[in-house]
Amino acid sequence: MCNISSLYINRGRAEGRAEGRAEGSLETAIKMIIEMFRNNIPVPTIANIAHLSVEETEKIIRENT
């Protein structure tokens, strides 16, 4: 029985780490988008760099400035 509980604990840790990395990556991407916007890079260019639509990029900028 110990092996089964260890499996679930290890799986939970791995999932938690992956989720933490994803959240960190998202925060970093948002910071980069805002920084590009503040440096007067056109929104379509930012969207292209971030692989997002112009609408998604504008939404991120609105919500974070």
Residue share in β-strands: under 5%
Order of helices and strands: HHH
The gyration radius over C-alpha positions equals 18 Å
Largest sheet: none
Query: Oligomer, anyone?
Result: single chain
Task: List how many beta strands DSSP finds.
Answer: 0
Shape: rod-shaped
Alpha plus pi helix count: 3
Measured as a percent range, the helix fraction is over 70%
> Low-confidence parts lasting 5 or more residues at pLDDT below 50?
none
Kindly name the structural category.
mainly alpha
Would you tell me the overall average pLDDT? 84
First CA to last CA: what distance?
A: 52 Å
What does this structure look like?
By secondary structure, the protein is mostly helical. The protein has a domain at 23-65. 86% of the residues lie in helices and 0% in strands. It has helices at residues 2-38, 43-50, 54-64. Helix 1 (2-38) runs antiparallel to helix 2 and helix 1 (2-38) packs across helix 3 (54-64). The longest helix has 37 residues, at 2-38. It starts with a helix and ends with a helix.
Short structural summary:
The protein has 65 residues and is mainly alpha-helical. The chain is 86% helix and 0% strand.
Give the key terms.
65 residues, mainly alpha, 3 helices, rod-shaped
Write the SSE topology:
Layout: H1 2-38, H2 43-50, H3 54-64
Helix pairs in contact: 1-2, 1-3, 2-3
